Each structure stands twice: as structure tokens, then as C-alpha cells.
Fold this protein.
Amino acid sequence: MIKIRLTLLAVICLFITSCETEKHKFPTEKRYWDTNDYADVVRELLYGYEQDEKLPTFDDPKTRVIVEKLTDQQNFKVVLDDNELGLKHKNEIAKDFFNRWRDMQDIYQATDRKDNYLYDKEMIEVWQFGLSLQLKYFKLGNDNILISADDPDSYQTKNNVNSNIKTLIKNFLIYLDEINNEKAFSEQGKELFAKGIDNYFTELIEFYPNANYGSMEKKIELMLNKTQTEKIKNSLTKIKELIESKKQQEL
């Protein structure tokens, strides 16, 4: 009788575990997620979890793959870097990914009673996904402007291109706004945040060396006075020096 009860209990536990596993479904078996996958996944992460239910994290072996897939930049690069695809088609895909990313930013914003981020590493990876995506999104947009223009060298065309670059730089500055909240980050989160400055801000400036980075320089100066994290301070300083070096090369 005892064996029967233990067997029954084991079956019940297995059933409950199975139900929990099936509660949230994600297409983790797919090599790449397209924008439809992102729409479904983001919707599930935003609205499919109870308020006290833990979201997928890098620290949880069972759910780590979900965050890795969510923030995998190859999902958009495999399409946007494909030379066999048309420019207009890639622009449409880039726009769709950009819209999905804007929704992604709300997933990992939760804080605890001490105002610390509960998911800082995940939030930062989502942000860096967006920085990398925007570098391609805005370039594709500008390429389309140049190809579609009767005169690529006209004032209006150049003005449209420069306006897009200005918007891109402005969007990058939003990432630096998080320095105001650096006390909410873990040490690992601060290090990851600094690496984002190193990687994506450097890529931005190297790709657009002649752009006007006046607003970024002002922002960096303010954040250098604000940050208490040495790694973030070093990363900001390196970007400041890179901007200055590009200016000198123009003279």
C-alpha cells in the first residue's frame, strides 16, 4: 500500500512538473527567430507571467537558453547581412525588428524593495541587442535614401542622411542615461554595461567618423562626473578620446 502511494505521489509530481514546463512555450529549437517569433515571445514574457513569477534569466540553467535566443544578434544579422536579399526587403525586416526591440525594453525593468534591478544583465543585453540592430537599421535606411534619390549629392539628400545619423546618435545617448541608475546594477551588470560602451559606441564612431558628436561629448562629460564605477568611467573616457582623435584627423 505504501509503495502504491509513493508511486502515485511520484506520478503526480511528474505531472505537475510537466505542466510547469509546458506553461510557457518558446521556439528554442529554431536556429534563428524571425520577427513573428519575437512578437510571440515578447508578448509571452510581458503578459504571460504572474507578477511574482520569475522571468527567464542567464543564471537559471533551465531558462537561460530563452534569454540567449532573445538577445542573439544573429537573429537579425542573418537577414540584414544577406547580400542576396533586396535593400527594400531588408529595410522592412530591420524596421520590424526595431519595433519588436522597443517592446523588449519593458521586459526586464523590474526592481526590488531596495530599488535594485532584478534582471540587470538581461536588461543590458536587450539594450545592446538594440544598439547593434540600430547600427544596421539606420545604415540600411540611409542606403535606401541614397539609391532612391535623383541626386545623391544634393543638399536635401545629404540633409536626410545626416538627420538619420543625428537620430542614431541621440538614441545611443539613451543608453548612457542608465548611468544615473548605476546603483541599481550588480557589479557584473556594471561591467557588462561598460563593455557595451566599449563595443557599440566605438563601432558607431568608427563607422561615422565625421558625424557631429557634440551632444555625445556633453553627455559623456556629465556622466563622467556622475558615475562612481571605474570601469564605466574608463569606457566613457576612451570614447571621449576616440571622438577627439577623429576631430584631429579632419584638420
